[in-house]
Amino acid sequence: MTVDLPFGTVPPVLLFLLGGLLIAVTPNAFLRRLILVVVPVYGLVQLFALPMGSSLEFDFFGETLTLLRVDKTSIIFATIFHLAAVLAAVYGWANLDRMQQSVALLYPGSAIGAVFAGDLITLFVFWEMAAVTSVFLILAGSTVRASKAAIRYLVIQVGSGVLLLFGAILYFQETGSIAFEKMELGSIATIAIFLAFGIKSAFPLLHNWLQDSYPESTITGTLILSIFTTKMAVYALFRGFPGEQLLIWIGAVMTCFPVFFAVIENDLRRVLCYSLNNQVGFMVVGIGIGTPLALNGTASYVFCNIIFEGLLFMSMGAVLLRTGTVKGSELGGLYKTMPLTTFYCIIGAASISAFPLFAGFVSKGMIIDGLAKEHMLIPWLMLVFAAAGVFHHSGIKIPYFAFFAHDSGRRVKDAPLSMQIAMALSAILCVAIGTFPDPLYALLPYPVDYVPYTAPHVLHQLQLLLFSALAFTLLTISGIYPPELRSTNLDFDWFYRKPGAALVRGVVTGIAAINGAMTNFVGRRIEGALRSLYALHGPEGRLARTWPSGFMAMWIAILLTLALLVNYL
Amino acid sequence: MSEHGPKDDVKGIFDNPRNVNLLKYSLYASCLLVAIADFFVDGHPYFDIEKFPVFYGLYGGIMCAALVIAAKWMRIIVMRDEDYYDR
């Protein structure tokens, strides 16, 4: 349905893009900070005045490009993206440089553009814009590691976009439409689009760009990165492949395998990246189930996860700012001098673990119940295990090794005020949503028929979490729990960072050698020809010599005699 | 930025072993409580396996222990020096 935008409405994407460009040319630091906060706040207010339906439609070689498709699905994703942009702006108030401030609007703006895209071409444009803008946040890490990770990130992200465009073109050939609607997995076109979404959602074996690049960014940069790219891809899957059964299995594997890596990872921001991978797995399972309950579960889990996972990243950012490290092996005992950050981190940990009264409980349950209602035992067991695993690494490990465990002797100040405000707002949202989920449920794409607070639901969740905590306690007391060690853990990226890189180096060296040999061979031939020419025609060459005129007359006489003889004989 | 000080300059709540023990025993008691409660709450199970007494608690606890032990073994294969990729 095509509708007209109310007079004076600034399209959300335009608002963010103009804001980002304005920041880039604003010399005053305070003004830049103000723009960074005001733009998403204004966008959020304006969001609820947008009429349902499609607007900003343009003709594109006979096809229609739709820049603004507003429905309940796009609105809930756009709402949380706006809210997250506000929280990130407050958190980064004092620690973002001009470039990052600009990107902190351009990148969310791109993700919001993708969420409102009504066709595959518009989606592709914002998909790539998100890739290109976000890479600056990794580069802002300003280390050699960050630069290398940024290049790997960009190659993979842009590759995903190219795959999306390839799929979109084939899809247009097949169906004659570029509309971004539900697709059936089966043709090369839809497989390419599915894979493009899968790369950005960090499907198993396509996931390592996330753990590789995000922890290399700056304090606020990592927070911003953790919010948008993966959730934009979840939105794309939500819109394009709801009910695709394969997603249940992909998502279930995604929820399980990162928890093993998270347990042994020492860099606590990287632990959160594995956690993020696992959390997106839950969302993907919900999309795969495809029932209204499960899809509502995914939408609400995206909403809540952005807040509580963001809160955990914020608390680790504050630790990094104050201590200069987020390595578990170098931290511990910070609760003594960072009590507020510890408190906020515990709220985030309780929420991600889905403790009753916290945001995770009222949202994650819908996905797990969605699986149970479809009687899918194996994925259900995998998700229940993963839910316990999340508690283990995000709920216990993060706060325990950063703030408690052995006392590292670090006596640092608590987080700065702007960070504390952002953490406090996030924590309030975690508890508010967990306690009064109805406003969130009202935003969901389908009518909600789900009661989170039933006696068995609360009891089973408490059993799962408390016995997991018991396992952690007993393993720690008995010394079985693996200590935090300074290390790198090999993951799937080893294949392209070591043998893959060696192969590329080998190929490049081989091509260079062949090129050198060919250049040598051809060069020698050309040089030889030039030498011969020079010998004949050069200043001392036989053909360039100055001959006496008598010599020429003699040759003419010889030639004439020969001509006469030939004529008469 | 970090200010390393003597370890005993600031006393925290968990420097007192009594508080650590209090937390520990509270956890044990809570586990016992939710395990007992399982026999009084009708669970509306979707799967037969859920009918097993204290299924969620046992599954969570055992799987978490298995997760930690498996991850510990994984270190033998995947753990390298911190600068492995920088070399």
Structural features, described:
The complex is a heterodimer of chains A (569) and B (87). With 569 residues, chain A is mostly helical. Chain A folds into two domains: 1-241, no CATH class; 244-470, no CATH class. Helix content of chain A is 71%, strand content 3%. Chain A has helices at 12-25, 29-47, 72-91, 98-116, 120-139, 144-175, 188-201, 208-213, 219-240, 246-264, 268-289, 292-323, 339-352, 359-373, 377-403, 417-435, 438-443, 455-477, 494-497, 499-537, 549-568; strands at residues 53-60, 63-70, 488-489. A two-stranded antiparallel sheet of chain A has the order 1-2. The longest helix of chain A is centred in the last third of the chain and has 39 residues, at 499-537. The N and C termini of chain A lie far apart (101 Å). The model of chain A has no long low-confidence stretch (mean pLDDT 92). Chain B is 52% helix and 2% strand. Chain B has one domain (13-86). Chain B has two helices and one strand; from the N terminus they run H-H-E. Chain B is mainly alpha-helical and 87 residues long. The radius of gyration of chain B is 21 Å and the shape is flat. Classes of the chains: A mainly alpha (569), B mainly alpha (87). Chains A and B meet through helix 10, helix 12, helix 15, helix 18 and strand 3 of A and helix 1, helix 2 and strand 1 of B.
